[in-house]
Amino acid sequence: MGRTLLSGTLALTLVAVWTGIAHAGGFSTTGSMTVARQDAVGVKLQGGRALILGGQFPATFAADIYDPATGQFRAASAMGTARYGATAVTMNDGRVLVIGGYGADLVPLSSVEIYDPQTQSFSPTGSLSIPRANTTAVLLSDGRVFVAGGTSTAGPVASAEVYDQLTASFTPTSPMAVARAGATATPFGTGRVLIAGGETTGGARLGSAEVYDHGTRTFQSTGSMETPRAYASAVRLVDGRVLIVGGSNGSALSSVEIYRPLSGTFASYGPMTTARIAPAVATIGAGDILIAGGSSGSAPLASAEIFRTAQDAFTTTGSLRYARNAPAVVALDSGKVLIAGGSTTTGYTATAELYDEAGTPTEPCALGPTPPGGIIGISINGGAAYTNTTNVRLNVVWPECTAALMVSNDGGFSNHVSVTPASSVDWTLDSTGPERLPRTVYVRFGASTQNYTDDIILDQTAPTISAVAVRTTRTSAREAPRADRAPRSLVITTKAADAVSGLAGMQITANRSKPGKVRTFVKTVKARIAGPRVWVRVQDRAGNFSAWRSARAH
Predict the structure, then answer these.
(1) Which of 213, 243, 325, 380 could be 300's S-S partner, Cβ–Cβ 3.0 to 4.6 Å?
(2) Distance (Å, rounded) from C-alpha 488 to C-alpha 485?
(3) What is the pLDDT of residues 399-436, one digit of tens each?
(4) Quick check: 419 and 426 in contact, CB under 8 A?
């Protein structure tokens, strides 16, 4: 099918190419982040690791480091400001500039901070001239960072500014011709940046584009896209052209356009197999482009495809394990692509996956709910050591694509129960055998024969009190005589024991019907008690209480 591009008086017809050939790449699971999030931002650090920071909902302070060598995430130090919809750029010195975004109150931020891999911490730096979320930011050839447009407190803005690491401050440039939020920004040439599309005041989508020239710190108009679009994704191709895919023009777009810097014109290509808003894009192999996930406008997407730069053609590839909208994406040094978090069909996720161009094609994970973040396995009652009841709660983190899990009190699973994966599962422990022996719970995920276990000690024997002694303090003895129920300063000594879990707490009161709070067990303790008799009971680590024991003060 032909497309016609009008540029001045020149009409150029381009052929949209679809090869129909499936690409052999695929996605595989990797470690999960410490928190579930969408609208986070990901950047590659020097040394090959990836930093994932911020996200919602609500806005989070959390940041994670992904280590490709281990395939695991670990928590980094927290940001100074909770934010989502921020922008981040790795600067030439290896530090990461984190810009704007929305705060916990859903208001755009002007604050900016820097992550330093050497100290593994965030610190504030100079603020933006105005608050900005959904802004664009790119690293310029001289090491400065260019920021343009975005949503401020009153809507889309046209202003732009440049961050200088040497002065740790922003300097305004001339503004764009049009206010834009959700535009694309792609560096090309020396000190030039293509700004394309976006939405402007009133929500209208833009087809216009302009070029920022860092030498003059001004914008010049350039050719317009054939289809107005906001929240598209853009990437510079190895031959210097700029690929812009998808986005929204009131509905999700499958159309694709390529900008030619030499002529300053756009040409339509494609379309993609699937209409996508804000898909994840990354350069792979010798310069091909992975396009994955995004939103259809009503649901997250799992499908993925490859733009072949040499042929200007699309091919299919394996799908994401989970449909994902607004994930973080980082191209790793290994050639693999990390895609982390986002919103799935069941909510925000902490899961992540890797695209490998040489991998086995995958199909979307249609089995089971999305697992929570954390290390795969189980814990009983949140990792407690003791319980006084056989009814416990299992906290579960399961692998992706798990349709069911088997739970058993024996490692051979001779008697097991199959349940749908859930972050908490009610369970009954085996009550037979001596109390001192741990009760182990075994779990298998799906068809796997690998056992995941946790244990807890069942202690249903109450502690005992052998004696309670109460005496008045010297201060109390010197006090003037008062009614028998007036508070007195007392010293209370309790002799108690527990054979299984040990003593943990105690209650001291003059009225057993109003025992008050449980305090840490101390053999001898001072207290002010009103009444002629003091009542004491102790509690063990499993939660069992002894019988009440009383004594009079001497």
Answers:
(1) 325
(2) 9
(3) 877 888 899 999 888 889 988 888 899 999 999 888 88
(4) no
